[in-house]
Amino acid sequence: MSGVSLRLDEKVVLITGGSRGIGAETVRLFTLAGARVAFSYTQAQPQAEALAASCGGPDYCRALQQELASPADGRELVQAAVAAFGRLDALVVNHGIWPPDDAPIAQMSEAQWRRTMGVNLDSVFGLVQAATAQMLKQDRLVADAPRGHIVLISSTAGQRGEANHADYAVTKGALISLTKSLSSELAPQGILVNCVAPGWVATEMSAAALAHPEVGARIAAGIPLGRPGSTREIAGPVLFLCTPLAGFISGEILNANGGAVLVG
């Protein structure tokens, strides 16, 4: 009796922000599923190169250094991924910035606002535009299978907002709206677009907050499961959405937050 397979053999996947945290775990999981993976990083070159080597080296996994702050940056990264592996079957938009210091809207600088919009939203337009064009022009690997998959990573902040971080919350809310718009547009053409919205996840970026006695306790109290998620618990749903088992799912906002926000 054969088991259920989540294999992505022969598929090529581009994962942005893949050198650390959720992105790195997503890279690992997709390569374990048999995909060839290109992932982007900005500054963490040692970590990126080590991750690519541990996931099979240049024939299976490549780290691409690319700033993502404009539509042109996004298009350039897609071109690099296609140049590396010859096609593109799935795009996972995981990169983003979260300015760590509170910035009340009355004091938030225009420079911070524009920087967050550029990285978290403008570059996504270029990525999605170029990835869609590539998927539409290439042959399907399997005749009746989807032409491609796009998974955008949002956040609970995009669903309920976040005081003193309006710039971040706006971009993550926009990704939810973008998911729904792209699904309506692209599903008839065979490209399935979905979104994963994580809550608190134990990563390098969140470590200080989670370790703080008062802040960490307050965070845990707001999660029905009583703990933050692991990076594998976010990467797993992302992988699922790119497999044949999710072939009838499009426009979905998949919450991976321990029950903290019940909005789809």
Describe this structure in words.
It is a single chain. The chain starts with 11 loop residues before the first strand and ends in an 8-residue tail after the last strand. The model has no long low-confidence stretch (mean pLDDT 94). Helix content is 44%, strand content 14%. The chain has one domain (12-256): Rossmann fold (3-Layer(aba) Sandwich). The chain has helices at residues 21-32, 45-54, 71-85, 110-137, 157-160, 166-186, 207-211, 213-221, 231-241, and strands spanning 12-15, 36-41, 61-65, 90-93, 148-153, 191-198, 253-256. The protein is globular and about 50 Å long. The chain has nine helices and seven strands, in the order βαβαβαβαβααβαααβ.
The first-to-last residue Cα distance is 36 Å
What is the CATH architecture descriptor? 3-Layer(aba) Sandwich
The structural class is alpha/beta
**How many strand segments?**
7
Gyration radius, to the nearest Å? 18 Å
At the fourth level of CATH, the homologous superfamily is: NAD(P)-binding Rossmann-like Domain
- The helix content, as a percent range, equals 40-55%
CATH class: Alpha Beta
Residue share in β-strands: 5-15%
CATH topology term: Rossmann fold
Mean pLDDT: 94
The figure for the number of domains is 1
Tally of alpha and pi helices = 9
Strand order of the largest sheet: 3-2-1-4-5-6-7
**Major sheet:** 7 strands, parallel
What is the overall shape? Answer: globular
Q: How do the helices and strands follow one another from N- to C-terminus?
A: EHEHEHEHEHHEHHHE
**Unreliable stretches:** none
